[in-house]
Design a protein that fits this description.
This protein is of the alpha/beta class and 395 residues long. The chain has 10 helices and 20 strands. It starts with a strand and ends with a strand.
Length: 395
């Protein structure tokens, strides 16, 4: 059976020739064949020039490109892609690494596999498919992962039920497609211990993208009273304790999250009295808090997932940062982040600038933060730069 073909409107091939990995529905002139969601299709210009091979889907992103050459998407293709990704992680010292066995193996477009995320937790790979094509290929991808790790990966967990678009008719169920759950789910990051539950936790169970930013906390925490808002697993709190914080308060609206944060503190600092977990809304806590802190961490969930929500999101970032600045002691430090892909670095910085100006305090930028090297950004796909952060000194 011949491969379905997608023909683009005149001029719409230019972004593909610049290696952008998406083709939007508005760029499509006609479809030859009857592709189903997840089928491999070939893409051609209006003048019948071959452009790319990719996964088809009836959505605003009609094709996610897998290869700009006319190659078949075979098991060897997946093997080669996993090998390339693992080679990068080896080159930056993430694998093998006795102090860190949590890292991202596949970061979608950044690893030229749009629609796929794979995180490694010890001997388990946790996969999230964001497209029909990747979901249909999940078993082949799992085989390639096990093979490239020389079978050191003994389990692959598919957690795609919450990441596939609702209109798709796959009825995905989160489950192990290779192996069984490990007996213990405690892993290492820079020598810190963390309990991770990919079955119940957000994303793949842990926010792998904040690894180097958590490490930076150690340099600022010594002797300081620290407040970690939106604390989730308590990652920043553990690093603050490692850095010698005088006290650490972790705040999250989820009781389960605070229970997990408390367990992670206990794993690293048994019987400590320096940490306190509080179940509360971060905005409410900051408004009502009578205590001032030397260091505050703001790592909220994405306030905007779509462009129409940007205005409200920027107002939320401004209010949140203003509340934090007002709760900082003189010469305090603020770590503030946005993980909203649709909020640009400039817009986020302007929101923090507005909060600083309203506060009337002198503020300096000490660090400008982003995602780590195992979350690479495809230079032809700037949308992949989603994590933005600032470290501020507030006089």
């Amino acid at each position: 059976m011949s491969t379905p073909k997608i023909y683009l409107k005149p001029g719409k091939e230019q972004s593909i020739q610049r290696f952008h990995p998406w083709i939007f529905s508005g760029a499509v002139k006609k479809i030859e064949g009857n592709p189903a969601d997840g089928d491999v299709v070939e893409v051609y210009s209006d003048t019948n020039d071959f452009l790319a091979v990719g996964h088809y889907q009836q959505s605003s992103i009609t094709v996610r490109i897998l290869d700009f050459n006319k190659n078949e998407i075979t098991q060897q293709f997946w093997q080669n892609k996993i090998k390339e990704a693992l080679t990068l992680r080896r080159s930056i010292g993430l694998y093998p690494n006795p102090d860190t066995n949590i890292f991202r193996l596949i970061h979608g477009e950044g690893d030229n596999l749009p629609g796929l995320v794979v995180d490694i937790y010890g001997n388990t790979a946790v996969m999230q498919c964001h497209s029909a094509g990747m979901y249909r290929s999940r078993n082949d991808i799992a085989k390639a992962i096990v093979a490239e790790f020389d079978e050191e990966i003994t389990a692959v967990y598919d957690k795609s039920a919450g990441t596939l678009n609702l209109h798709e008719n796959f009825n995905p169920t989160d489950k192990y497609i290779v192996g069984q759950p490990p007996a213990e789910k405690v892993f290492f990051e820079h020598g810190c211990k963390f309990e991770v539950s990919w079955e119940e936790g957000q994303k793949t169970g842990f926010f792998v993208d904040q690894r180097e930013n958590r490490k930076l906390i150690e340099q600022f925490a010594k002797g300081r009273d620290v407040l970690n808002t939106f604390g989730y697993t308590g990652g920043f709190s553990v690093y603050a304790m490692h850095g010698g914080a005088n006290s650490v308060v972790t705040v999250d609206s989820s009781e389960k999250a605070i229970d997990l944060a408390n367990r992670n503190i206990e794993l690293n600092f048994p019987n400590t009295a320096l940490h306190k977990g509080i179940v509360a809304d971060a905005f409410d806590f900051l408004k009502s808090s009578n205590q001032k802190y030397d260091l505050i961490i703001l790592d909220p969930p994405a306030f905007a997932k779509h462009t129409h929500a940007i205005k409200n999101a920027l107002q939320a970032y401004k209010r949140l940062n203003l509340a934090a600045i007002r709760n900082l002691k003189p010469n305090g430090i603020l770590f503030t982040f946005s993980c909203s892909q649709v909020v640009s670095r400039t817009d986020f910085r302007n929101a923090v600038f507005s909060a600083s100006a309203i506060s009337g305090r002198k503020v300096s930028i000490l660090h400008q933060l982003t995602q780590p090297a195992d979350h690479p950004i495809n230079i032809y796909h700037p949308e992949g730069e989603y994590l933005k952060g600032l470290v501020l000194e507030v006089k």
